[in-house]
Amino acid sequence: MLAICAAATFAQLPVPTDFLSKEFHKGRRDALRQMMPANSVMAVFASPVRNFANDVDYKYHQNPDLYYFSGYTEPNSVLLIFKDAQKDSAGQSYNEMFFVQKRNPEREQWTGKRLGIEGVKAMGFSTVYNAEDFARYAPDLSDFSKITFEFPKALADNITQSDEVFDLVNIFKKKAGMPADFDADVMGDVMSVKQYPRLLASTQILTGYFKSLAARSENYSKNPLIQRLMSVKDTSEVTAILKETAALKWDPSLYDYATRELRQIKTAEELVLMRKAIDISAHGHNEAMKAIKPDMSELELQGIQEFVHRKMGAEYEGYPSIAGAGNNGCVLHYIENNVTKVGDSKMILMDIGAEYHGYTADVTRTFPSNGKFTAEQKQIYNIVYEAQEAVFKILKEGTPFADIEKTARDVVTNGLVKLGILKDDKQNRLYYPHGCSHFLGLDVHDKGIYNKLAANMIITVEPGIYIPEGSDCDKKWWGIAVRIEDDALIKKDGYEVLSAMAARKLEDVEKMAAKKSFVDNMDLK
Q1: β-pair type (56-57, 78-87)
Q2: Residue 147 domain flag
Q3: For a tag site, which of 70, 318, 392, 408 has the least CB within 10 Å?
Q4: pLDDT confidence of 162, banded at 50, 70, 90?
Q5: Cα dist from 118 to 28, 76, 89, 115, 467, whole Å
Q6: Measured between alpha carbons, how far is 40 from 82 in angstroms, rounded to an integer?
């Protein structure tokens, strides 16, 4: 009797209820069908399971596209979405088929309950099978005019050996009649060229693009199609090659374009979760400012922010947390966070964003270790702040991404030239080597098309200055790194800074640092 009561109590423990609705996911699939060409099918695969150490795997993180179209968070699965209604052998109509991880009571005792067929049907799908039946029940796909897909990345060194998703990929290739030598990565990049007019502006730009791809991978450099594209002489040759690829039925570029086009515009339901993730992140940054002391470690500062994330309901961080003191802040993706004492009068660059129900924030704040900026730190900080302010003034629907980049870079460059840190504007990338903005959503660098801003896009605005020790300038600037990064919602006639709660203006940062933190009286000795 006692065991029964305990089980009943456990079943009633509260869990979050504010996930995306099944109506949202169905709406996204319907929107996708509107974009798909006649007689086409799209395959959306789950992410592979990745091994952490020996017989322990990393906590599973779903392919954001599969989550977007379904809400399903388990591995070893594939969703087929058809443009047009299909008929099964019994005459029943369907326009999607979902092959999912099979229920397994023995494994569920170790890794948790699986939804199985019935659980996925409750999510709004009617045609659902176990993944092990993909070869048997999925239709012959080779007769479709267009077959689009994106295969999971096979990072062989840490893929769990039993991962079934690659078995599903191989079955899919056979059902699609795909040639054995069809390289999906190469063909995707080639077929996507038509989406980017800048690459087609001249043969020199196009050949340069493919040469850069070839330089990264032997797989690309030895591919016959890439070799042809690296050596084209005029636009007529390019047109002929693109016409050849467009005629193929296997088209990964359609998948790429459709998911970018859809995911770059956030729906009302998505905005609720984005606001939550960003709000949590802003609280975390404020708390780090309150807590900062010269004798703190980078890891301690990281832990304070991440504690706030968990306290407020965020399941993860959207990317590895950056907590760089002094010269470490000049390393753009510094994640070691292993300095045991950040030191006096050092700048702390913290780039940490919470992930809430799959949606991630991306917020950076930079503040002094003793709560007060030095004269040099103030000058660098204010240049970055003014660059951000200049970008905010032009944010609205229709603004080209190129204008954002130019605006930020001009302010930073002019500011550094005035201080004598740069000799002239030709050095404009020396201490500001990255871009200013990227899309934000289910991925920290979310999918989107970098053309012009549109309402309900969310982008980052993150100018920065990084002056490493040993730089060709006065030593007083060495080791100063500043990035200020906010998340902005684009509107028809303007914008909203969703991360505005995190202190940003220099005076507000110092005021926040003067406040008490919940860790001030913590004694763990």
Answers
A1: unpaired
A2: yes
A3: 392
A4: low
A5: 22, 16, 21, 7, 57
A6: 6
